[in-house]
C-alpha cells in the first residue's frame, strides 16, 4: 500500500478523530431516545404493570441497544413504584451514557435504592459505564466482564465491554466483542453500526461497509447508523457522502454534537467553505472547537484575513501555532513561520514546518529527516537540491513516494534534477508545506515558481498537481513537465487523467500508453483497456487487460474485465468463461461478474442459464447498472418471454435517455413492440 502522507494525515485525522472522542472514543453510543415511540400502559398504576413496562424497556435495551423512551418512562415508572429496581438501573444507564455520572451514581446510592432489588447484569452494566466515563477503565473492564460472565447472551453487555476495551486497547481489540453483540442481536441497528464503526477504525473498510449496510437495512434514520456511515465515508475520502449522513442525523437530532462537528469537518474536507461557515455559525454552541475549525476552513480556502481573525480567538496550544506557521507561509513570511513552528517542533507537523521555513531562509534540512516519513523525505530531497546534490536528492525522492497522491520517481533521472537551481529548490519549501498541509495559496505560488523555471520538472509537477486539486488549469504545466522528462511516469498518468476527465479519448489513450510502458499500474492499465475498446484499438486493449491481470492475478476486476472483453470483442467464449468463473470464486454474488457469465451463457445458447445469471446480476446491482438490465431484456427476448421483456424494459428507457445506452434501449424497444 502506498505510504500515506504523514502531515496531511496528522491534520485531517485530528479534525476527524476529535469529533468522535468525547463519548466513546470512536464508538457510537445508543442515544436514540428522542425518536422512540411511546409504548402502551406505561403509566398504569399496578406494580405488576409498572414492572412489566420496565422489563419491556430492558428487553429493548438488550435486543436493540435502544434507549428510546427511557428518560421519560423510567422516571415515570419510578414515581409509580419506587421499588422498581429495573427502571432505576435503566435510568442510571441512560445517565451514564449521557456522561452525567453524578446523576447515575445518585440513582444507585443505598439511600435512594432502599428496598428495591436491582437486576445484577444491568447493575454491572451501569457501573461499567459510570467507571468508563470517569476514566477508571480497569474498574469498568471488571464490571463489564462480570456482566458478560453472568449472561453471555446479553448483547448490550458485550457492547459495553467493547467500548471499554476500545478506550483501553484500541479498535482492533474491541472487534471481537462488537461482533459478538451484533451476532446476538441481529436486529439491533446500533450493534451493527458500532461494529461497522469499529471495523472502519481498525482499517477493515469493506467489512465495515457490510456491517453498516446491515444497520441501514434495520434502521436507516437512526443517528448512530448515520454517524457510522459518515465516519466510514470520511475514511474512504468521500466527504460529500459523509456530509449527507451527518446532515440526516442532524435532521433527526438537531442537538447531536458529533453530527454537527462531523458535518463541519466533512464540508471542510470537501472544500465547501461557504456551507462550512454556515454550519459553524448554526451549531457553534454544540462544537467545542468551532474556533479551530473556522481557522482551518479559512486556511484551506486561502483567506488570510479570516484565518488571522480566527487565530486570535483560538486557545493557546499546538493547533494555534501550527495555524500561525501555515498563515505565515501563505503570506511568504518564512521568519514568522519558523518562529511559530519552533514552538511545536516536538510534533511531526511542527518539525516539518521548521524544516520548510529553515530551507526557505537559506539553512539546511535537519539530519535524519529522510527516514521519518514521506513528507520528511521530500524536504530532505529539497535540502539536497538546495546544496547541489541531485544524486542524493533522487535517493531521498524515492523515499518520498506518495508524499502527495500519485507521486513516485519512476522515469525520473538524476539528469532531470541536475538542472534545478539551488535558489529554486529553497523557494519551493514554503509552497510545498502549504500543499502538504492542504493550505490555500500553494497552487499560485507553485505555478509562479514553475513558470519562472521552465526546466524544473519537479516544480512543474507539484504546481500541476496542486492546481488540479483545487480545480485550477493544469494541463499546460503537465505538458511542460512531459517536455522536460517524457519518461516521468506520474506526469503521463496525470496527463491521462486530465484528458480522461475531459473525454478526450485519443489524448488520454496516448498518455496512459506512455505511462504503461514505464510502469504497470493497474488503474492506468484498466483505463488504457477501456479507451482502447472505445477507439477500436482492440489489440492494445487486450494487451492492457492481460498486463493488468499479470500484475494482479487474483484481482476479480482484472479477471472479469478480460473475460468481458474476450466474450464481446474477441469472441473467445472458452477463455472468457474460465476467467469469469475464477473471478466469481473470488467475489461471489458480484453483479458485474454474474452479468459476464450470463452474457457468455446467452452467446453459447444456454438461455435458461443466461436468464438465471442475468436475473441474479440485476438483483445484485439493485438498479445501479442499467446495462445489466438491458442484457436481461436481451435474454428475455431470446427466450421468447416478450411480456416480461417489455415490462423490464419500460422503466429503463427513461433512465438511459440521453446517455450512451439510449441507442441500445431504443433498438430493444423496437424488438419488443407488438
Helix content: over 70%
Give the rounded overall mean pLDDT. 87
Shape descriptor reads flat
CATH architecture descriptor text of the domain at 555-673:
Alpha Horseshoe
Beginning-to-end CA distance, first to last residue = 56 Å
What gyration radius follows from the Cα positions, in whole Å? 30 Å
Multimeric state of these chains? single chain
According to DSSP, the number of beta strands is 0
CATH superfamily of the domain at 555-673: Tetratricopeptide repeat domain
Using the coordinates above, name the CATH class of the domain at 555-673: Mainly Alpha
Short description:
This is Tfp pilus assembly protein PilF. The chain is mainly α and 674 residues long.
Structural description of this entry:
This protein has 674 residues and is mainly α. It has a domain at 555-673: Serine Threonine Protein Phosphatase 5, Tetratricopeptide repeat. Helix content is 73%, strand content 0%. The chain contains 40 helices and no strands. The protein has helices spanning 6-18, 21-24, 47-64, 70-80, 85-97, 101-107, 110-113, 120-134, 137-150, 155-169, 171-184, 189-202, 205-218, 223-235, 239-252, 257-269, 273-282, 290-301, 304-311, 318-330, 334-342, 348-360, 374-386, 390-399, 414-418, 422-436, 442-452, 457-469, 475-484, 489-501, 505-518, 522-535, 538-551, 556-570, 573-586, 591-604, 607-621, 626-638, 642-655, 662-672. Helix 4 (70-80) runs antiparallel to helix 5 and helix 5 (85-97) runs parallel beside helix 8. The protein is flat and about 85 Å long. Residues 1-51 have low confidence and may be disordered.
